[in-house]
Design a protein that fits this description.
407 residues; five-stranded mixed β-sheet
Length: 407
């Protein structure tokens, strides 16, 4: 047994406090009331890590002994970020498409097909090196848990490759064969769904935990999305959904009906959508990088939170609509553009992401949780939004091991 004590923490964000949102009521994860500052006239709080887990949290003056001591020097400590929506396994990039959007071209779902061709042509070695590079990039920015989707293969062989390679770096793998209809199935969407829920599902299910579908104009209809998610459920995969990105529709309510862990995007939500989410334990995952990159309107997180919807923030790292892996950047956008307070945004990027993955062992700092911790070069977590674009992550621990340190 090895113990490490992180002491003299200026502000410790535990995410253990009052419950808000329907996911909290359903017991899917601790909810925030803002940071926990245990100084109480003393200097700072402390966290004891025992092997891969947190074993004690309290004032530094009452901390037990440990094999190693890390002096936080009055800096803030937060849980590792939990990024519950990413597409990290792909070939090529779409810089030209981004440039065209910045010149006024409208974003549409069809751009995914250009990445499919590059991904199909890439070798396993090329894709493996790229996904591991992205994971390392995320660690350096404080992300210790990441969900990874397939969806850039759209044939049986390549989709199986993508979920298999994703499973090498995370337990949170999502099968997204229903991303868009590939060119070879143009005007035959139902036939492609047959493939997605048949041979392709057979090949991918052994490597995946989740199943997802892009329920949107230009992608899949509500009826097709139902077929995909119900087939995944029958194979033991848990449902997620992309919906409400390009316009309003019935996808959100379908996701709630089927007990999806999360609906992601939510740029366009009706009052009925919001009411359905608030009455369920389905998390609404906001993806601020998408609106930044596509120039679509930012969702109103204030409306969602005030209605009782549980909200997460994720990066949606992908080559087309959000090529960022920086959760601090997404937190700053959520505060500036979506009406969230800094404490709400930090919670959404940690415990909120955990709720979207139905996890209670990450996104919190409490005895028994995974020792996934981030030391900031700042006295409070507010600085993540207050100082956008500044590399504030000083040190990162995952499962009790220091995996990145500035300098």
């Amino acid at each position: 047994m090895t113990t490490t004590l992180i002491t003299d923490i200026g502000e410790l964000t535990t995410n253990v406090g009052a419950s808000t949102g329907s996911a909290a009521q359903a017991g899917t994860g601790a909810q925030p009331i803002g940071p926990l500052n245990l100084s109480k006239g003393m200097r700072g709080a402390a966290v004891l890590v025992e092997d891969d887990s947190i074993s004690w949290v309290g004032p530094s003056s009452e901390a037990p002994s440990a094999d190693a001591i890390v002096d936080a020097g009055g800096r803030a400590v937060i849980p590792g970020f939990v990024d519950s929506h990413s597409h990290l396994v792909f070939g090529g990039d779409r810089a030209a498409e981004f440039e065209a959007r910045m010149a006024g071209q409208r974003y549409a779902a069809g751009g995914i097909r250009s990445t499919v061709a590059a991904t199909r042509d890439a070798s396993d070695g090329e894709l493996r090196a790229r996904v591991r590079g992205f994971v390392d990039e995320m660690l350096a920015q404080g992300t210790t848990t990441v969900e990874i989707k397939s969806g850039y293969g759209l044939d049986v062989e390549t989709e199986e490759r993508l979920v298999r390679l994703a499973a090498e770096v995370t337990d949170e793998v999502t099968y997204l064969g229903a991303h868009v209809v590939p060119a070879e199935y143009a005007d035959r969407g139902d036939d492609y769904v047959d493939l997605v829920i048949g041979e392709m599902l057979d090949a991918c299910a052994p490597h995946a935990k989740w199943i997802d579908v892009f329920c949107e104009t230009g992608a899949f209809t509500v009826a097709q999305s139902r077929r995909v998610l119900e087939a995944g459920l029958a194979r033991g995969l848990r449902p997620r959904m992309h919906a409400g990105q390009l316009g309003p529709g019935d996808g959100v309510r379908l996701a709630v009906e089927l007990g999806a862990a999360s609906v992601d995007h939510g740029t366009y939500l009706t009052d009925d959508d919001v009411a359905a989410l608030a009455a369920s334990d389905t998390v609404l995952t906001l993806l601020p990088g998408v609106e930044f990159s596509t120039r679509q309107p930012y969702p109103d997180a204030r409306r969602l939170i005030d209605a009782g919807v549980t909200v997460a923030i994720a990066c949606d790292t992908n080559p087309g609509s959000s090529f960022t892996s920086s959760m601090p950047f997404c937190i700053a956008l959520a505060v500036r553009e979506m009406g969230m307070t800094p404490a709400e945004a930090v919670w959404a990027a940690t415990a909120g992401g955990a709720a979207a993955l139905r996890r209670s062992d990450v996104g919190v700092i409490t005895p028994g949780a995974r020792a996934d911790l981030v030391l900031l070069d700042a006295p409070t977590s507010v600085h993540l939004a207050y100082r956008p674009g500044v590399p504030l992550v000083r040190q990162v621990w995952k499962d009790g091991v220091s995996v990145w340190r500035k300098g």
